[in-house]
Amino acid sequence: MAKRLHCGCCGADFRTWKGYVDQDQDKGYGICRKCQDLMEEDNNAKLDDLRGKIREALNEKNRTKWDTYDLETQRSLAIKCIEDGLVTFAFSPTHMERLGLGQSTHLARGARDES
Ligand SMILES: [Zn+2]
Questions:
Q1: What is the pLDDT of residue 92?
Q2: Ligand 1 center to residue 39 CA distance, Å?
Q3: d(CA 62, CA 57)
Q4: Which has the closest alpha carbon to 50: 6, 2, 88, 100?
Q5: What is the predicted pLDDT for the residue at 91?
Q6: How far does residue 53's CA lie from ligand 1's centre (Å)?
Q7: Contacts with 40 (C-beta within 8 Å, 6 or more apart), sequence order
Q8: Among 33, 51, 56, 66, which residue's Cβ finds the most Cβ atoms within 10 Å?
Q9: Residues with CB under 5 A from ligand 1 (ion)
Q10: Taking 90 as the threshold, does the pLDDT of residue 70 lie above it?
Q11: What is the distance in A from the centroid of ligand 1 to the CA of 103?
C-alpha cells in the first residue's frame, strides 16, 4: 500500500511506489525516487571509477580475465572488494549538491541557523 513520506534527502513529500524499500530509519521519512536515482547514478559513477582502479591493479593475466566480465559482474566484484575491506568507499553527498543542497535537509533541520 502506498504511503506518504517525506524525503530525508531533498525534503520533498512523495508517495511510495510498488516495490519501494524503506530507506530511512525515521518514521515518516524515506528517500524519493529522484534522490534514489541520483544516488544510484552517483554510486555507479564511483563504482565505475573503482572498476578502472581495480583493472589497473591487476596483473596482465587477471586483467585479461577481468575484461571478459560484463559491466554488472565488474560492479559486483568492485562492491565485493569494498565489503571485504580491500578498498574503502564513501557515499558522497554530491547528488545533494546537484539538487542545490549543501547537506541533507533532514540532518540540517534544527541545526540550521535561522538568524
Ligand atoms: Zn528526494
A1: 54
A2: 10
A3: 10
A4: 88
A5: 52
A6: 31
A7: none
A8: 51
A9: 7, 9-10, 32, 35
A10: yes
A11: 12
* Residue 13, H or E segment: strand 13-15
Q: Ligand 1: distance of its center to the CA of 113 in Å?
A: 22
Q: Taking the domains of the chain in order of start, what are their residue ranges?
A: 1-31, 32-107
Q: Average pLDDT, stretch 66-86?
A: 91
C-alpha cell at 29: 521519512
Other CB atoms closer than 10 Å to residue 36's CB: what's the count? 17
Q: 78 CA to middle of ligand 1, Å?
A: 27
* Best CA proximity match to 35, nearest among 17, 12, 15: 12
- The Cα–Cα gap between 98 and 75 comes to 24
CA 95–ligand 1 middle distance (angstroms): 10
